[in-house]
Amino acid sequence: MATSRSTEWAVIHGLGIMIFVTVGTQLPFDRLIKLVDQWAEAQNKEIFAQIGPTDWKPKFIEAVQFLDPMEHNEKMQAATAVISHAGMGTILTSLYMRKPILIMPRRANLREHRSDHQLATARRFENKPGVLVAWNETDMAEQLNKLEGLTLPEGISKYASRDLVKALSDFIGA
After folding, report:
1. Helix axes 88-96, 117-125, angle to 10 degrees
2. Can you list the domains of the chain with their CATH numbers?
3. Which parts of the chain sit beneath pLDDT 70?
């Protein structure tokens, strides 16, 4: 298994895998946090979560409602894996930082979001290297157990590809 520098540092310092869970800042995502918390009870892993504006408190993972952008970036850098809602910013940042990510889309019918756009995002990333998707509670348990062995062969650029820039330029110029 290929390891990142943060993974190597964690292993050398006896920390094992450090998982960073983030749900964004706009809405709580208690379903995701409860599933990770239940899983964490039987694990010997360092798990830190940014849980958003919720009254529910996890029992088996360290959590805060909000992190400032610098703290969020530090947690992402230190993590060996990320668990998140299907937010584009978190997904792209994880891939850029070469962090394997497990995503679970929020669902409008469960009042986790205003629309189901995260379902489309999850479908788009479902078969990408380094990305796992949990569609429901059963999937989450299975995917959490796959997370530790997941690797990301290479990161993505923080810049748009030349083909995309050209297509946008052609479209705007047309």
Report:
1. 20
2. 5-173 (3.40.50.2000)
3. 1-17, 110, 153, 155, 174
